[in-house]
């Protein structure tokens, strides 16, 4: 069975229909790229898949969990326990060091500080950032900051990593490196990866891509 399943999903913002009847299955362990023009609904689709938004109509499953019927608090707990997130602008906390930014999700999940710090250090080292652990985001390059964001997304060993234009703010060399690193590490942990991008070079790293147009999938997205 798919790890994520949407059926008949609609999502509106006021009069604006962002998703207009989406069916999509995501397979466990795959890297899925969501492509399409600006404003087509890619971000909204990612947010529904990740349980950030509840759809107005239709159903969203994560494995056997009917996410679309969960309340805010249960969806927040599901996201914290099962998912990792990487955004276009890392959204690192500016007053925390790289190390503390990466440790934070573990601390929020209730892990002991010493264990959280040890795991955060290990991920920073894997991302080539051991020497930058004590720096704040403002002291890092864009590519370094995105690698910190990747460490933070992976530190909880998520089943699924959601990335929304993860390389959108980077030059093309940094973007290539960040994508390669993200996917290599995610594959190493067996995580499923869902990436929103309009960059075909980023999508080239995916196992499969779906194209969103006007709030609908205009490509094959459903498992047989
Ligand atoms: P994309 O990621 O493809 O650029 P989005 O999913 O961000 O598209 O947006 C799809 C449509 O929904 C757009 O018209 C956008 O303005 C609207 N939209 C998305 N998120 C919100 C929001 N939080 N509030 C209001 N409108 C939104
Ligand atoms: P994208 O790069 O996917 O186009 P946006 O910059 O459109 O992303 O959106 C970034 C965030 O703002 C998303 O969480 C999206 O849901 C939200 N958003 C997008 N459009 C609107 C809007 N018209 N009003 C309020 N929030 C929006």
UniProtKB/TrEMBL annotation:
The keyword Nucleus does not apply. Transmembrane segments: none annotated. PANTHER family: ABC TRANSPORTER RELATED, IMPORT ATP-BINDING PROTEIN. Residues 4-224 form the ABC transporter domain. This is ABC transporter ATP-binding protein. Keywords: ATP-binding, Nucleotide-binding, Transport. One of its GO terms (molecular function) is ATP binding. It comes from Leucobacter iarius. PROSITE patterns: ABC_TRANSPORTER_1, ABC_TRANSPORTER_2.
């Amino acid at each position: 069975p798919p790890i994520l399943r949407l059926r008949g999903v609609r999502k509106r913002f006021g009069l604006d229909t962002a998703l207009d009847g989406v069916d999509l299955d995501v397979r466990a362990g795959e890297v899925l790229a969501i492509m399409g023009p600006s404003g087509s609904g890619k971000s909204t689709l990612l947010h529904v898949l990740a349980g950030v938004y509840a759809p107005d109509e239709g159903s969203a499953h994560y494995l056997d969990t009917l996410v679309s019927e969960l309340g805010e608090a249960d969806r927040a707990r599901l996201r914290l326990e099962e998912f990792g997130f990487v955004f276009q602008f890392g959204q690192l906390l500016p007053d925390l060091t790289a190390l503390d930014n990466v440790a934070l999700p573990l601390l929020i999940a209730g892990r002991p500080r010493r264990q959280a710090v040890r795991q955060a250090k290990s991920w920073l080292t894997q991302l080539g950032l051991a020497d930058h652990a004590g720096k704040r985001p403002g002291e890092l390059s864009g590519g370094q900051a995105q690698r910190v964001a990747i460490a933070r997304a992976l530190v909880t060993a998520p089943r699924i990593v959601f990335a929304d234009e993860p390389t959108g703010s980077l030059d093309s060399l940094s973007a290539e490196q960040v994508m390669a690193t993200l996917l290599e590490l995610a594959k190493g942990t067996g995580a499923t990866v869902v990436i929103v991008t309009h960059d075909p070079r980023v999508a080239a790293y995916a196992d499969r891509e779906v194209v969103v147009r006007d709030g609908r999938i205009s490509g094959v997205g459903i498992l047989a």
